[in-house]
Amino acid sequence: MLLTNNLGYPRIGAQRELKKACEAFWSGKISRKELLEAGLKIRTSNWKIQQEMGIDLIPSNDFSFYDQVLDMTLMVGAIPQRYYNLAANKSAEHELELYFAMARGFQHDGIDVTAMEMTKWFDTNYHYLVPEFIKNQNFSLFSEKIINEYYEAKQLGIETKPVLVGPISYLLLGKEKEQGFNRLDLIDSLLPVYERIIEALKNYGVKWIQLDEPFLSLDLDDKTLALYKQVYKRLAKSTGGIKVIVATYFEGLKDNAEVALNLPVDALHIDLVRDRQQLETILRLIPEKLTLSLGVVDGRNIWKNNYDKSLELIDTATKKLGENRVWVAPSCSLLHVPCDLDNEDNEKTLPKEVKDWLAFAKQKLEEVKDLSVLAENRQESSPAYQHYIENQTSQERRRTSTLIHHIDVKERVATIADEDIQRKSTFPERKARQLETLKLPLFPTTTIGSFPQTKEVRSWRAKLKKGVITREEYDELIKEETKDAIKWQEDAGLDVLVHGEFERNDMVEYFGEQLQGYVFTKNGWVQSYGSRCVKPPVLFGDVSRTQDMTVYWTSYAQSLTSLPVKGMLTGPVTILQWSFVRDDQPRSETTFQIALAIRDEVLALEKAGIKIIQIDEPAIREGLPLRKADQRNYLNWAVKAFRLSAAGVADDRQIHTHMCYSEFNDIIADIAALDADVITIETSRSQMELLDAFANFNYPNDIGPGVYDIHSPRIPSKEEMILLLEKAKAVIDYKQLWVNPDCGLKTRAWPETKAALDAMVGAAKDLRSVKETV
Ligand code: GLN
Ligand code: ZN
């Protein structure tokens, strides 16, 4: 019989219970005990769902209160020195306190420590906390969460498969915090901890464990590949009695296939959604006895599986390996898709016709189960066969739907010309003209766009949706909030203002809601980082713009002040990247459609007299294909799409762009090719390290390196920001520098926002006065 294997289940809860519990705990509204209970409830429900679905290999330790990589860091005791004070007290209560301090920073009782750095998990919009390593890094078994959770499930009568990040991927996910060593050199001191864990799990009667090694499907040098062989050979000595699955995902194994297939483990999981072609090679090279877990159901997107296509793969595999050595699985952890389509009942935002094409986590497990049954038996009388017919019918309905295709949109993309992606003059010429119109000081200060989305602001939107208040009443409230924000920014002495984005629920959904080609879910939440979730809109058809999207609010804000207010738009690549995107045409084609819509909005803002327009592209880096060989092509169309959206304006209009968490070293030439007049970037958590790429490249346009981290409630001091700006000045010409936070402030509260921005403006003023006196 074909077994079904799940790699991970969404842990936020179908109604975002985890977010609510964590945030209530952080603000002191619920006790530690209540938080732990909320966690247990989610885990229990997840395990039961999977059991009911008939999943054979159900994961445990895929739950996390913040991040699974941080869990690993705590498990192996890689606690950075700045948390030692907090770590010294080793009680269960303090373990959680320490954990959240590492995740979010800690400012209390005379202790003031920053959070760990956060970065994107491969090419997803999930962020993990980056392990920090020193040369003489010690590892020791610190947290026993993995054991506890296995035991917890067992008590419920559910046998689970503990999941952990494999040792090589764990090291590769981290960062050296001092010079003179390579983090992979730490493997010898790390492995004993893995061996202890495995030993302990064995004693609890664990049958299978899953070691995630996503790096095995990326470009690897020979040394790392050789290390894979050594490490797994060594681990095999301690795993006797426990079976090991190595999980790879997000790419095909390609040239690493031979090494991956010959690791001394019991099963290998491969992602056949990202790389369908790899099956052939893998079946050719697979050694006897190895079980293959086929990732055929897309764990990264929400479209219904195409049973015919999946069964083709499964049949090919079973023909060669037999049914006992083939498992059916989602392509990766289901962390990246929403929980349950059954909770979607709003036909106005998600019409039945489109809902019929979708599957969320729970439905995906149903698909996995169906496929495993169908692979063995396609008898017309079986219930699975009924599902098979239904699946074929909805594939056909989607293919022939009249909602999807619009000739005029396709034609406009087909006729994009070279001059459409080129500003009229060069940057130095534009800068001169912009200085004339904008009259900005040195080290101009600005923010990234959003101001705190307080409970109240969000409650107005909820009331509007429920019909408790009218559109007019809602607009009045938003106007008041915007007015206060403008007034506050003027008083604070900021140079370039923003309207605050109070009218926006989310930077992508807001645009999606006004564009053709989109539908929306009510509860399609996906974890972004910690308690933060996003609800990606569903881009199902050709995209076009039929009305102004931002002109009203930007013009309103501009009418309140003589200082420039930035128009705020989300860029085409980010809109693509943060949506669930149709899979029936190339992503580049879809992005150009969005770019043309944004271009029209940019021109509408220009016409309305807005002088600075920011087109946010925080997701440009995460869209980069993981394999080098595919990157050039992506960068070409991504850069072209951005330029297409921006290049229509006159020279005296200033185009800004903003990016967060970006590692720019390898793509700096393309960032420069965007040709934005100003780029604001996230740099504070990495202490301006990111700026080196700009310095080395001699980046020509203006840059605003973020001077403080907005992901934590911690208030930075003026001195600390001056120090960062001094670091920036050391590598970038001061005339190119802007002063701004790392990112938008919508997740923050007003008191900390005001305090931090006051300090920031103070820092800019100090720098100016120094410049003016020399
Ligand atoms: N303008 C957006 C904001 O300030 C940018 C957010 C982002 O880059 N993620 O909220
Ligand atoms: Zn940002």
Tell me what you see in this structure.
This protein is an alpha/beta fold. The chain has 2 domains: 3-399, TIM Barrel (Alpha-Beta Barrel), CATH 3.20.20; 426-453 and 487-514 and 549-773, TIM Barrel (Alpha-Beta Barrel). 44% of the residues lie in helices and 13% in strands. The chain has 28 helices and 24 strands. The strands form 7 sheets. The chain has an 8-stranded parallel β-sheet with strand order 1-14-13-12-11-10-8-2. Helix 9 (222-239) links the parallel strand 10 and strand 11. The radius of gyration is 26 Å and the shape is globular. The mean pLDDT is 96. Bound molecules: glutamine and zinc ion. Glutamine binds at residues 448-450, 501, 507, 568, 616, 618, 658, 660, 743-744, 746.
